[in-house]
Amino acid sequence: MGKATCECCGKQMSIGMFAKTYYRVYDMNGLIHNCCAECCNQAVKAGKVLKYDEVNKKIIFVAPGDEVIRKKCECGYVFCYTGKDVAQNREQAKKALSASVTAIFTAGSNTSATSLNRADHALNQIVDYNKCPQCGSPYLTIISKEEYEQEQQKKSGQNTNVSPSPADELKKFKELLDSGIIAQEEFDVKKKQLLGL
Question: Which helix (H) or strand (E) is 61 found in, with range?
């Protein structure tokens, strides 16, 4: 008979054919963890979901809505998703499977083509959160809420410091001219300034 450690409370659990006192549970990223029966039962009674805490290297149970996963790609792109998003992926996968099975059993009919279209649509709705939505890289790091907020502040700080291009400014003044807010002479002066003429 072997031993396993609950990745939630740290308790040692016996494992074996007749002494299984733990569960193999999935976190939001689809990774499998050992969890004792007591921790699982408490989580189910409280209506909580499983999340892996990268910082403390253990599983935690959080209230639905609090289970936000924040990731940063090697390209610098930062994004987040929730357990609800993962659940929607599962639902789309079930729809795709169901439509595919229907297409197989109705092969050669109009129903088959419709079912295949439904399956394709459902598959296209699935988002792969293990790849960067920006560049497609699988090299992602889970980051904390604080790190995510810092990245967002950096991003918003960069956006506020960027000055508009001369073309953007010219477009803005053209809209003012077209709406009658400024006169043609004012527009011509501004155009010369922006173009350096």
Answer: strand 58-62
